Amino acid sequence: MWGFLLRPATRRPLISLVVAVGGLVALALPALDMNLKATQVDDFPRSLSTMRTCDRPVDAFPSTANTDTVAVRVPAGESEQLRTRMARLSESVRQDPLFATDSPPRIRYSADGRGAVLEAGTPTAPGTDPARDSVTRLRADLVPDALRGVPGVEYAVGGAQAEDMDYTSNLNSRLPLVIGGVFALTFLIILLAFRSVVVAMTTVVLNLLSVAASFGFLCLVFQRNWAEDLLDFTSTGHVVSWVPILPFVILSGLSLDYHVFVVSRIRESVVAGMTTKNSVVDGITRTAGVVTGAAAVMVAVFATFGTLTFIEMKQIGVGLAVAIVIDATIIRISAHGGPEPQARPRSSVAVRARHGGGSPVCRSEDRRKNPPAACPPDRGNPTLPNPCTAPQVTRARFGRFP
Q1: Which of 70, 261, 290, 342 is most exposed by smallest CB count within 10 Å?
Q2: For range 92-109, the mean pLDDT
Q3: Contact 63, 25 (CB under 8 A)
Q4: Axis-axis angle for helices 160-194, 245-271 (nearest 10)
Q5: 85-103 burial, b for 16+ CB within 10 Å, e for fewer?
Q6: Counting Cβ atoms within 10 Å, is residue 226 exposed (0-12), middle (13-18) or buried (19+)?
Q7: CA–CA separation, 194 vs 347, rounded Å?
Q8: What is the pTM of this model?
Q9: By the 8 A CB rule, do 215 and 323 touch?
Q10: Cα-based distances in Å from 362 to 58, 198, 340, 346, 400
């Protein structure tokens, strides 16, 4: 089967590569609109009895749906001014339509009078646009205006919504560093293993496309509602903040593992004297059973996550399953069926001298199709000895690309 799938890629490598990369880029485009948000109470399915119980007091007391907290600390001797400024802040919050109107803000002071905490309720649950606006309003306008001019004052705005915003912002700022670090290590490992900048760069680029395509598919499924009935979920319009980084690191490790495995078999065939094109087909077909079997097992396992109730588990399962399918099919064919690298054995004598002797490999199917007397020499290098008539057929020792 893999010989049939590889035929277009080996006959028209550039066209196949352009088509594959174009398809992956198209699938990755929705990831540009990825909306990350930490899971909040409203994101859990209402089919759970615990969530229906949680909704009752919120419906009865809407001002307690979410609470923003402002913590303030001043130097010694500024206690009176702290109380004056906190009263001013409480009045500003009470008059702002983003905050609850049926319950005034609550203020608590520390025993030494240097610290104060203001709790302001909002009528909307965390994760909604009004809840995010209330935190932004406190941080950008209300708190700075109320405390302006107080010497040595320190303050912070917290609460469930502020935690969500800060957590997501931190992930957004750190995720590029994690991705860059993983790809840099991938490039270095492949470069040291195969001594080929082209192979290392191709690995990094195609892994990046694979990850981006899986992120794009996540956005297509979970930020829209067309797959709700299929996967039995209600779209929240976002991807959970910590979900993308988990499939990324898992996929990077799995992809690097099988990529080294496949390329090693290809290199063995090149070292043994086969042409690059034949080595690609031979290496992929020889490893197809192991790689495809492992991919099928992982896809089956991760796909079961999509049957779970919680949205995080669904996103992890669907993201990983799709990523592995892409990596084990499109990426495998594109990465190894593209244009031939320039590095080749200089001669059969150099190959045998450098890699410990031995004749080029004769595949068992070549012997079945062609009797030893009729088996022709390698077409890519007619000077090589006929592998099918060699009296001792041994595999060249594992080594680097010449």
Answers
A1: 342
A2: 89
A3: no
A4: 10
A5: bbeebbebbeebebbbeeb
A6: exposed
A7: 19
A8: 0.70
A9: no
A10: 74, 28, 21, 20, 20
Res 59: pLDDT:
72
Q: Measured between alpha carbons, how far is 44 from 284 in angstroms, rounded to an integer?
A: 44
Alpha helices in 223-310 (DSSP H): 228-231, 245-271, 276-305
Q: Report the alpha-carbon angle 17-18-19, nearest 5.
A: 90
How many angstroms separate the CA atoms of 311 and 270, rounded?
Answer: 47
Structure confidence by residue, pLDDT tens digits, 33-90: 998 887 777 777 777 777 778 777 767 766 556 889 999 999 988 999 999 999 999 9
The bridge status of strand 106-109 relative to strand 154-159 is unpaired
Residue 366 has pLDDT above 60, yes or no: no
Which pair of structure tokens corresponds to residue 284?
Answer: 């992929």
Q: Say if residue 289 is exposed, middle or buried (CB neighbours under 10 Å; 0-12, 13-18, 19+).
A: exposed
Q: Work out the burial of residue 374: count CB atoms within 10 Å of its CB; fewer than 13 is exposed, 13-18 middle, 19 or more buried.
A: exposed
Q: Does the pLDDT at position 336 exceed 60?
A: no
Check if the beta carbon of residue 39 is closer than 8 Å to that of residue 163.
no
Alpha-carbon gap, residue 204 to 182, rounded angstroms: 9
Average pLDDT for residues 103-128, to the nearest whole number?
Answer: 89
Residue 71: enclosing H or E segment and its boundaries? Answer: strand 66-73
